[in-house]
Amino acid sequence: MAKARRPQPSMPRNEPDERRDDPPSPEPGEAARYPRVRFIGETYRLLFEKNPLPMWVYDVKSLYFLAVNDAAVERYGYSRNEFLRMTIKDIRPPSEVPRLTREIESLDSSTESIGIWRHIKRDGTLIDVEVRGNEIDFDGHRARLILALDITERARAERRLRTEYAVTRVLEGSASFREAVPRILRAVCEEADWEYGELWRCLPDGDVLRWEGAWHVEGFPSREFENAGQAIAVRRGVGIPGTTWATGRPEWLDELTPARHFQRTRAAEALGLRQGLSFPITGHSGRVLGIMVFFSRASHEPDPTFPDLMADLGVRMGQFLEAEHADDVRRQLAERFSKAFYLNPLPAIISRLDGSRLIDVNESFVRAFGYRREELIGKTAAEVNILQPIENRAAILEPLSRGEGVRGIETVLRTKGGELRQGRLWSERVDLASEPTILTIIEDVTDYRRAEARLIESERLASIGRTAAFVAHELNTPLTNIALLTANLRGQITDPALRDRLDRIDAQRRVAGKIIEGVLSFTRSADLKKETTDLGVLLRIAAEQAAAFRREGVSLALDLGDASVSASVDPLKMSQVFVNLIKNAFQATEQGTVTVSLRPEAATAVVRVRDTGKGMSPEERDQIFKPFFTTKARGEGVGLGLTFTKTVVDAHGGQIELETEPGKGAVFTLRLPLGSPAA
């Protein structure tokens, strides 16, 4: 079947045609790199080009890449022209293409796609990525805009943790090494993404290694490779297992070449094996008792810590193999499990299988959640109230009661101080001292989710900003015409009633102009010109500018401290922020006091604007920073002031928070980093 051609969108005049069979030479200047992205606008083009994360656009029908940013070129190793000759299938391992095809077929124009995938770089190595995509119109074609977040390091850490836990659990639950071997090979293959694993054992005379067993994933044609292994005896220093036997060290095998004296080269080439890992099984004395080797047809980016982990597991296997009695083995493993539990850098809990009582927690859990161990041991989940809501326990206990594990379930966790954190849980059933228990390991993903939410919010605000700028531009022209026409008519009319009506028209035109100016200031809110500025001076000026909005019976209290507090800010933008907050406080307060305070706290400057108004409901509080949301009466605002304020504060690397309850006023707290502007 002929290869599908990339769709050829109509090109704007005087812009280069990037047809796949005749790729263009790069043009000078940043704007020339993404000619087809211009239809979205300059702001979007810059967001696409300068994003530090890989991004691309592909055609939904043909799956060809239509545009890629610099980060994608740098991370994946393909040139831009190479990308534009490829489809998104070309950067997937063959095993993931069917799933990719099914997912694409299930998408519609309103669906946001989020998923974990494996991608192939130009040098053939695999990386783990979290992919997020939305459909866009790309010059008249259905296309999707993709953002790829490299989670290889996170996946490696999870892979190491899963592998260590799986092997430890196999050893703990096996009566003999012979029983454990196929389960260990399977556990390492499944948890660390190998396709084939085998064991070589030292014969009693200690002169050669013999092939003793293997495990492979379903569909892996291993018969010829296994037969070749069973037919040979490997001497020290010969072949992959013999080399590991001689050195006594684990080895990551990026190339399986004859230079290694690989005795099964022909069978390996027939299978297409590209990568391997070999590590020794050593006893108490350091003597090598056997070698485990794993192979894959895919090429992974080498994990420098994984071979050392497997060497440590090899020591555990060797100790298991040398033990005379299963009880001794279980005791030793229990000690190691105890160390792994208490020294684990991730928070971990052991509880009864029915979830009724906590048995133990590790030090990482104590530090993360703020409790003392004695406050937790023996308590029920309901008494401690860490899992939010408590009903989420059912999602964990139900699969465990069926003998299944819980992997990566996300939930909300509450610290002793009441802070809510996003957590990802792994739970497994573990028998300790003949008692069935649950081991739960917790990964705090709060900061990751917040960063993800900020990225999504920035994309959403950028989209709103583009729309707002377009609308403001289009409205300014008729408003200018209205101003000219009313001024012209006013000079020709002497009737006071008609002149009064013209004045009203012009007044409404000025109101519309102010609204448009607010919209335009919102679109420019992230462009900063920083300089070291005395925030107290800005607050005094802002209070004077907002004084016109203060009602009779409302007082202003400025508490700016005795010492000057300076920060690196854009003085014009930050002045607008302070005016917005003080003006809103005056408008919300009918009687009482508006208090403005400034204090340095640690490495931040903290500004608080407190009013004694009617406060806000939880629903209003949750939406207060969203564009075009306002609690004011119709005609008093368009709902962009606080959105502008938050955008400016975020652009300065600061934070803004709101505390409010109905009938108790509101407190806006703004935190800005102290220091001088970057050189």
Give a short overview.
Helix content is 39%, strand content 25%. The chain is of the alpha+beta class and 679 residues long.
Report on the structure:
The protein has 679 residues and is an alpha+beta fold. The chain has five domains: 121 residues, Beta-Lactamase, CATH 3.30.450; 181 residues, 2-Layer Sandwich (Beta-Lactamase); 101 residues, 2-Layer Sandwich (Beta-Lactamase), CATH 3.30.450.20; 75 residues, Orthogonal Bundle (Helix Hairpins), CATH 1.10.287; 143 residues, Histidine kinase-like ATPase, C-terminal domain (Heat Shock Protein 90, 2-Layer Sandwich), CATH 3.30.565. Helix content is 39%, strand content 25%. Strands 1, 2, 3, 4, 5 and 12 form a six-stranded mixed β-sheet that branches. Strands 8-7-6-11-10-9 form a six-stranded antiparallel β-sheet. A hairpin with a 5-residue loop joins strand 24 and strand 25. The longest helix has 47 residues. The radius of gyration is 33 Å and the shape is elongated. The two termini are 58 Å apart. The N terminus is likely disordered.
- Rg, Cα atoms, Å: 33 Å
Give the CATH superfamily of the largest domain: GAF domain
Named CATH architecture of the largest domain: 2-Layer Sandwich
The number of helices is 20
Estimated helix fraction: 25-40%
Distance between the termini: 58 Å
CATH class of the largest domain equals: Alpha Beta
What percent strand?
A: 25-35%
